[in-house]
Amino acid sequence: MLYFGESETDVPCMSVVKEQCGHSIAVYGQPRKKATALRLIKEACKADYTEKGEIYATVCRIFDKIRVDNDFGQLVLRTDKAIK
Hints:
Structural class: alpha/beta
Largest sheet: 3 strands, parallel
């Protein structure tokens, strides 16, 4: 799961998403909000939803990580089957 939140009220949801191995991104519109968001969660991006924005790059990195984790999991399964 990928969760986008723009305020501190989203933190409880972000915590649940993280507990379930999901990813959360805090989206901020003002510079002062960035400092607050960075203390609370791992990813914080300016509210720019274009392909050139931070959010696009961050989401692409998260998708790449999910793909690599899945590929590694498949490799482990194949290895386990080969050993048995």
